[in-house]
UniProtKB/TrEMBL annotation:
Organism the protein comes from: Aquarana catesbeiana (American bullfrog)
Molecular-function GO term, any one: nuclease activity
Primary location class: nucleus
Keywords: Hydrolase, Metal-binding, Nuclease, Nucleus
An annotated GO cellular component: nucleus
All copies of domain DDE Tnp4, residue ranges: 30-189
Identification of the protein by name: DDE Tnp4 domain-containing protein
Ubl conjugation found in the keyword field: no
Length: 252
């Protein structure tokens, strides 16, 4: 699992995103899932989440494969608490990921990652506009973001479909859980690179995850984002509606 560590490596990831999903300057899609588990003895409600089952949380940054995985936070923690403790997220916030500067990016836009409503809009983290009263331009932005973010859903879906461990709540010793899940992520990356049949045989349903095995985090309610974060999203919106426009579905 190779995590980019230089601007040049991030640009390689961004080039792949731009070619495949028409989202420039993007270092990956971020998502989190509750992984169902049978709780360890005497753990009480420590792992019991707000959705009514026991879990640990798996957060991932994905391009064509896993770039970064954080697993092991107990499901009882709030989404904000889990995300705030994610090492990648802390480094994204404090500027220590060594991302490419805007002057090296398409249209001079900041380098970003794409996520859903569970995450907070930031200078380097794009989430969709709220679904109520969308303007046509905002619909375009949301479509472009959702199209790029689909890669992380598909990755979770392929892994859940191919590794039967995820079809039922995982029942094993607490100290083994994190290592086993991380091992499956590394194996997924290896098979994506070396086996032509690994993903292809799963079929178009790969991105549809059985909600009894990997369950999405709840949408966050982070309050008002910063002015600079809103400005970055607006600049991407203007690019997608102008020079960076692509053919859109008729039913958008």
């Amino acid at each position: 699992m190779k995590f980019p560590s230089t601007p040049q490596e991030w640009q390689t990831v961004a080039s792949h995103f731009a070619q495949r999903w028409d989202f420039p300057n993007c270092g990956g899609a971020i998502d989190g899932k509750h992984v169902h588990i049978v709780p360890p003895p005497n753990s009480g409600s420590y792992y019991y989440n707000c959705k009514g089952f026991n879990s640990i949380v798996m957060l991932a940054v994905v391009s064509a494969k896993f770039l970064y995985v954080d697993v092991g936070k107990n499901g009882r923690m709030s989404n904000g608490g889990v995300i705030a403790q994610m090492e990648f997220y802390r480094r994204l916030q404090n500027g220590s990921l060594d991302l490419p500067p805007p002057e090296e990016n398409v249209e001079g836009l900041p380098f970003v990652f794409v996520a859903d409503e569970a995450f907070v809009l930031g200078d380097h983290l794009m989430r969709p506009f709220p679904m109520r009263t969308l303007t046509p331009e905002q619909r375009v932005f949301n479509y472009r973001l959702a199209r790029a973010r689909r890669v992380v859903e598909n990755t979770f879906g392929i892994m859940a479909s191919r590794f039967r461990l995820f079809l039922t709540p995982i029942h094993m010793a607490e100290y083994k859980l994190n290592h086993i899940i991380l091992a499956y992520c590394v194996l997924h990356n290896f098979l994506r690179q070396h086996s032509a049949n690994y993903a292809g045989s799963v079929g178009p349903e790969a991105g549809i995850i059985n909600e009894t095995t990997l369950t999405a985090l709840e949408s966050g309610h982070p309050g008002l984002p910063s002015l600079s974060a809103r400005d970055v999203r607006l600049r991407y919106l203007e690019f997608f509606a102008g020079r960076g426009a692509i053919n859109m579905p008729d039913n958008l």
